[in-house]
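ok new one. same drill as before - structure tokens go in, u give me an amino acid for every spot. 141 of them this time. try not to just spam alanines like last time pls lmao
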């Protein structure tokens, strides 16, 4: 089957529309972090979320996004539970259809964020899990 996209074009596009937890965390630490939107349910949000994320369930996204990000060039990252959930893909599509041009999906969603040992928040406060050695191997210098 012939494709109209070269491998280089495919991977460049993939990087343009996805980000991973480490890159998102680094961008946020530098102060240039995007608007981060959690599109999961209220119950999921209460169980744990990325600090500073806004909770906008998918069903409300199209209705509420203009108040949160009036600029269609705003950098936005959406996330859901993880690899077994496609809510962030649906959210990214919704935003793209509404004219937002700098939308990315968080690869692995909340699950990978937590597995890498990055900070999380619940209704009971902040926490941090020990990194999963398979998801975020410890490096030695």
């Amino acid at each position: 089957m012939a494709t109209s996209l070269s491998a280089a074009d495919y991977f460049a596009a993939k990087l343009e529309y996805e980000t991973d937890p480490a890159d998102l965390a680094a961008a946020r630490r530098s102060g240039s972090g995007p608007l981060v939107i959690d599109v999961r349910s209220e119950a999921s949000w209460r169980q744990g979320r990325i600090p500073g994320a806004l909770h906008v369930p998918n069903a409300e996204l199209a209705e509420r996004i203009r108040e949160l990000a009036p600029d269609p060039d705003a950098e936005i990252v959406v996330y859901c539970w993880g690899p077994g959930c496609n809510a962030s893909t649906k959210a990214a599509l919704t935003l793209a259809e509404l004219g937002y041009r700098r939308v990315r999906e968080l690869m692995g969603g909340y699950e990978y964020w937590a597995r890498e040992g990055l900070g999380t928040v619940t209704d009971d406060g902040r926490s941090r899990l020990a990194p999963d050695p398979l998801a975020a191997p410890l490096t030695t210098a």
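The mean pLDDT is 90. and btw The domain at 13-127 is CATH 3.40.250.10 (Oxidized Rhodanese; domain 1).
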